[in-house]
Amino acid sequence: MKRYFTLFLLNFIGVTLFAQKNNFQNYAIQTLDSIYSKFGNTKNQLLAEKYPFDENFKADYLDNNQQAAQQKKYAYLWPFSGSFSAVNTLMELPKTKKAFQFILDKKVLMGLQEYRDESRSPIGYASYLNTAPPSDRFYDDNIWLGIDFTDSYIHTKKINYLTSAKEIWNFVKSGEDDKLGGGVYWCEQKKESKNTCSNAPASVFALKLFMATNDRYYLEEGERLYEWTKRNLQDPEDKLYWDNMQLNGKIGKAKFSYNAGQMLQAAALLYKLTKNKQYLEDAQQLAEACLGYFFEKSGELSFPKLKNSNLWFHAVMMRGYMELAAVNGNQKYLAIFYENLEFAWKHMRDKEGLFSPDWTLKDQHQSKWLLDQCAFVEMYARLAKAGY
């Protein structure tokens, strides 16, 4: 992989970088460039999962010890998909749209094709490469891709993006049945639980498909999945969201920022599309709940700081806050993210342009995870789009 691929391309097509008023846009571009120079390679468009490469790395998020124990040269689908979201978000910025659509088509989607699984029906994306032994297929992994493909279509009107999104929707629908009154499973090979991470984003996915097609079927699906998730997985005490419900009705009560963030985004989108004020009330209530739970006050700082957690979870939570600001005009929460991301740029970034995930600054994590880096690109680009 040629170093500084992204900066080279942008300068080639005449995009001016590093103007003072576009700091966050520049931060996003520089970080993406670091990703391709450190995680990329000269043989294909795939990315490594860890930098430096860690031969002992085990993907504990797979819930499959056998697959996790196998040494993998390239990233699993989930962290790779973070590069799709990162490039997509930069593509939404007017001055860089052309450059990043080129990167999307020639790098991201060419790499993504390596995860496409046509050996099983319906077609979907597997958690690892299609040239390796068959791997599990996760509905949430596919939903994140579906959201990105739909966003790509909305911002370019390129029909093949929408075709890909609809194909993924077909896969997602195959993961729902009548058990527990509906809801999408987490994993095709382990239909043991229905998770917030596979239902809240499915609602967002459906609502975006409605925005892309004006087909009311998707609006109805988005509303139905939102209501199912709220009814079954919302904690009535603090209004946040539990992680999952097993088929025996037992609740997994962990709370993660991306789960709440996707319900926040779905509520804001539903208000935008239906004008039902209950959805706006839901969104505003959840926004405050997230602020109280996923941020913490520090005596040394003038703003609430993000708690240590999966950084990409926080990036997905920010999508919800972005959507809320778009419908109610309140910049309060985005200003808090701005302060956090300025802090991260100054204190959490190493000499190679990569970020530690530790907001306390106690552990600088010599090993860097691909998805963490993609999360920062996405967050900087989203705030740049919002005018920061």
From TrEMBL:
Matching entries from SUPFAM superfamilies are given as: Six-hairpin glycosidases
- Superkingdom in the source lineage: Bacteria
Please name the source species: Sphingobacterium siyangense
Task: Give one Pfam family.
Answer: Glyco_hydro_76
Q: Which InterPro entries match?
A: 6-hairpin_glycosidase_sf, Glyco_hydro_76, MUG_Protein, O_gly_hydro
Entry coiled-coil feature ranges: none
**GO MF:** hydrolase activity
Q: Name it.
A: Glycosyl hydrolase family 76
Question: Does the keyword section mention Membrane?
Answer: no
Biological processes per GO annotation: carbohydrate metabolic process
Q: Which residues form the signal peptide?
A: 1-21
Which keywords describe this protein according to UniProt?
Hydrolase, Signal
Q: Does the keyword Heme apply?
A: no
PANTHER family with a match to the protein in the record: (PUTATIVE SECRETED PROTEIN)-RELATED, MEIOTICALLY UP-REGULATED GENE 191 PROTEIN
